[in-house]
Write a structure and sequence with these properties.
Layout: H1 2-10, E1 24-32, E2 34-41, E3 45-53, E4 75-88, E5 93-108, E6 119-135, E7 141-152, E8 159-171
Length: 172
């Protein structure tokens, strides 16, 4: 975790470049979820792939499945989104939105004192993302705020988990 925080803080101090986005970006986000993301920019569109974990920020452990452990519905997630973006204010800000797909893995412990007995649940469904990305002047870094949600279809039909996070990206 310390390495990820160090890496994200180094994004601000990398060599000088123009503020507009490049072909690729590597980012780190905190909130719901906490994730590392890779983004490939196209002509007014982007493919964003994130890998991270949920921390249960917007949902309690009882909202998804009964679990006697403290972690409840916390798990590992993989999300791929196709986004369209619109530059604003001389390309210093970009607004973006798009659909995606998400796969999660969650582990449940019926008895919090027995860690050897657990159930693993794989889930999937569509996701949606909207956000704003702010590019720093003379730095290849950007700050973003994004929100959206994930609608699980398998195994819990129509279970909705809202997402809201902030983060940093290094554009190269």
């Amino acid at each position: 975790m310390k390495k990820l925080l160090l890496l994200s803080s180094l994004f601000l101090f990398v060599t000088d470049a123009f503020s507009q986005s490049q072909d690729w970006a590597l980012g780190f986000e905190v909130g719901e979820p906490i994730a590392v993301s890779v983004r490939k920019y196209g002509d007014r569109n982007a493919l964003d792939i994130s890998f991270g974990t949920y921390i249960g920020l917007f949902k309690s452990k009882d909202n998804y499945k009964v679990s006697n452990d403290d972690m409840g519905s916390v798990g590992v997630m993989f999300n791929a989104s196709y986004e369209w973006y619109v530059p604003l204010f001389n390309e210093r800000i970009s607004a973006y939105a798009g659909p995606g797909v998400q796969v999660n893995s969650r582990r449940y412990y019926p008895d919090r004192n027995v860690k050897s007995v657990y159930t693993t649940n794989i889930s999937t469904g569509p996701s949606a993302t909207v956000g704003l990305e702010f590019f720093f002047a003379q730095k290849p870094a950007s700050f973003f705020v994004e929100g959206g949600g994930y609608l699980e279809l398998i195994p819990k039909f129509f279970y909705f988990n809202p997402n809201l996070s902030i983060g940093l990206r290094h554009n190269f």
